[in-house]
Amino acid sequence: MARFTPKVVTANALIEGDVIYLTADDRWTRLHHEAELIEDEAHAQLRLLHAMAQKSVAVGAYLADAKAGPNGPEPTHFREVFRTRGPSNYFLGKQAELV
Question: For the chain, what is the domain count?
Answer without folding.
Answer: 1
